[in-house]
Design goal:
The complex is a heterodimer of chains A (74) and B (249). Chain A is an all-alpha fold and 74 residues long. Chain A is built from 3 helices and no strands. Classes of the chains: A mainly alpha (74), B mainly alpha (249).
Chain lengths: 74, 249
């Protein structure tokens, strides 16, 4: 297997982490929707927390994406 | 094929070039955008605060909104002591926000897309947090690494974990912002190159190029969200770290 092929395979493998991130973000927003539906008056406080959790989880996706970009282009 | 000759080079946009002849030092376009961003924030505050009207105009309302947003965040997260850190948090938030937002204007450099910039900010934050904790609590600060009430025989396990998590804060803080910006702009570049590639293979390609163009338009909206969100996350994590420093858990 030549280096170019291995490089593209490696980039593909690196973004498998996105599966976990997808589950995580789905969990965060499902919990957010549930909590707002149960107690709509808590929306302002809970929304900020949800967005914070989303950003922290999304960062993991970006770490994986960054590794993929490094493999591909650096 | 013409399309073969077009290469995707998404990292090219992050190259630094000297502007204004370097001004005697290494003055790059990143520094120029930093100066412009700082000027914009200062102009907003200066011209926004000048009317001092009871019923604020548009500019004054924007300045007051910006002030109150960070002020409320500092008080909510840190507690009454948050007032002391408000100027720092305000500067940090708007420096990052300006970097993210100005970078979305085509041909404007995104200075937050360089690890050197975000790492410098994150190291500044973590040094400040450590100094504040040491000043507030003296050597009591080191009990931070061993939560009260945990069984003593767990100390060899808990203390290293707490130290590692403390030291990994600046790493995650800087890489989060930097990776978000790089990934967004690389995505722009990749889809923009698709447009050029498709456009170079004839009429059908040109019609097909509407696809990546539409994706780039949607992506711009998403990146506006990400730009504001990452500045918010950077500021709120700084708040949370400062809360830990002031209250020790």
């Amino acid at each position: 297997m030549d280096v170019a092929a291995a490089r593209e395979l490696g980039a593909g493998i690196a973004v498998i982490a996105l599966a976990g991130v997808g589950i995580g973000i789905g969990n965060i927003f499902s919990a957010l929707v549930t909590s707002i539906a149960r107690n709509p008056s808590a929306r302002d406080q809970v929304f900020g927390l949800g967005i914070l959790g989303f950003a922290l989880t999304e960062a993991v996706a970006l770490f994986a994406l960054l590794i993929a970009f490094l493999i591909l282009f650096a | 094929m013409a399309a073969e000759s077009i290469k995707i080079e998404p990292l090219e946009q992050f190259d630094l070039h000297r502007v204004l002849g370097g001004l005697g030092v290494n003055f790059t376009q990143a520094n120029l955008v930093m100066v412009i961003g700082a000027m914009l924030v200062m102009a907003l505050l200066f011209y926004g605060a000048r009317p001092r009207a009871v019923v604020p105009g548009r500019l004054q309302a924007a300045a007051e909104l910006a002030h109150d947003f960070i002020y409320r965040m500092a008080i909510d997260q840190i507690g009454p002591e948050g007032k002391r850190f408000f100027p720092f948090l305000f500067t940090l938030f708007f420096f990052v926000l300006m970097g993210n937002l100005l970078g979305l204007i085509p041909f404007v450099f995104t200075y937050t897309s360089h690890i050197a910039v975000t790492a410098a900010l994150a190291i500044m934050v973590i040094v400040l947090v450590t100094v504040v904790a040491l000043m507030e609590h003296g050597l009591n600060f080191f009990t931070y690494f061993f939560p009260a009430g945990a069984p003593v025989w767990l100390a060899p396990l808990i203390v290293p974990i707490e130290i590692i998590s403390y030291l990994s804060r600046p790493v995650s803080l800087s890489i989060r912002l930097f990776a978000n910006m790089v990934a967004g702009h690389v995505m722009f570049a990749v889809f923009a190159t698709f447009i050029v590639m498709l456009g170079s293979i004839g009429v059908i390609g040109m019609l097909g190029a509407a696809g990546p163009l539409a994706i780039n338009v949607v992506l711009m909206g998403f990146e506006l969200l990400v730009a504001a969100l990452q500045a918010y996350v950077f500021a709120i994590l700084t708040c949370i770290y400062l809360h830990d420093a002031v209250h020790l858990h």
